[in-house]
Structure formats: structure tokens, C-alpha cells
Amino acid sequence: MKIQLNQIAGARSGDKGKHSNVGIYFYNEKIYNWAKEVLTEEMIKNHFSEIVFGEIHRYELDNILALNFILKDSLRGGGSETLINDAQGKTHGQAALLLELDLPKELENYVKS
Fold first, then answer.
1. 4-63: per-residue pLDDT in tens?
2. What's the rounded Cα separation, in Å, for the pair 65 and 17?
């Protein structure tokens, strides 16, 4: 089943100098465990290919069913450097939730409509 990430998770994000972070929290432990296998640094790098010019680092937060991604060099000078760039890391969470995924059939009943 093809879904958008927003059907199984929520997100928060923000500026970190010239970098941004995207925290993705999952509504269910089974979905979270599946996402840890599927939602890789490479997948996020591909999704943000037009704005991320550095590495991506992923951190697992098992106790809160969340993944935190640091998007290096995604703000090109920093979110507060409005004369250089209007980029704001707070928008990256919403952009991440548009990511399309192939969800296995056994997890379909956890999808939020």
C-alpha cells in the first residue's frame, strides 16, 4: 500500500545554524520498528535532494518511538540569515511528512486516514 509518511507519523523540525533537524514520531510501536528499517539517511537525503547539500545523520529515540534526522547544510547560511536565504528549518518537518512509502500489508490497519 502506497502512503504518505503523515498517515503514520507526525514531525517537528527547526533551525540549527546552517543545518536543520527533523524529528519524526510514530503513532505505534509496530510502525516505528518497521520505519527504523525503512526510513534511512539515504531515503531522507533523496527526498530533500534539492535543499540538503551535506550529510544526514539519523538518531533513534526508542523510548518515544521517534527518529531524529540532522540535515547538514540545508539552510545555506542559516535560517536567520534572511538576506541570504529565506529557508526555515521549521518547514522541513512538514516536507518530510510528504514522503511516499510502500507500507507492508500487515501494517495497513495502523494507517491514519
1. 999 999 999 998 789 999 999 999 999 999 999 999 999 999 999 999 999 999 999 999
2. 26
User: Could you give phi then psi for residue 22, rounded to 5 degrees?
Assistant: -130, 115
State the sign of the Cα–Cα–Cα–Cα dihedral 110, 112, 25, 54: positive
The owner of cell 529557508 is: 87
Which residues does 34 contact at the CB level (< 8 Å), separation at least 6?
103, 104, 107
- Phi, psi angles (nearest 5°) of residue 10: -120, 175
Question: 72-105 burial by CB neighbour count: b if 16+ within 10 A, else e?
Answer: bebbeebbeeeeeeebebeebbeebbebebebee
**What grid cell was written down for 96?**
518530510
Write down the pTM of the prediction: 0.89
